[in-house]
Amino acid sequence: MKLSTRSRYGTRLLLDMAQHYNQGPIQLGEIAKRQNISVKYLEQIIIPLKKAHFIESVRGPKGGHTLAKPPQEITVAEIVALLEEGVGLVECTEHADICGRADTCPTRLIWREASRAMLHTLKSITLADLVEKAKLAENQELSQVL
Known about the structure:
- By secondary structure, the chain is mainly alpha-helical.
- The protein is built from seven helices and two strands.
- A hairpin with a 5-residue loop joins β1 and β2 (64-67).
């Protein structure tokens, strides 16, 4: 499965916000610069994230966006499921009614098993876990430079 830029960039957006959690509202322009993603694209991605209560917006001169819940309460599976509109590798794994062969198709069983394995992995990773991985990667990068 190839994840769309929507879910990959959405995860990066939320990770950036998790890295700055409890530091006040963050403007999309700041995130766009740090993540090298256009503000216009982030504006599109943020809409479903706000509707799903992952992000809250604060108006005013010092306004911006914050995570609506702590980073340890948001999994990558939730982000991908929202932005990809599901986590099945193929549509028939989630909607058997779209295929007349769904009940007897041996390949559907494989795709369903692979989808479950992927979902299990994505459910086990929170934004807090990604923040820690990013810190480790940054420390390793620094030690290689020195």
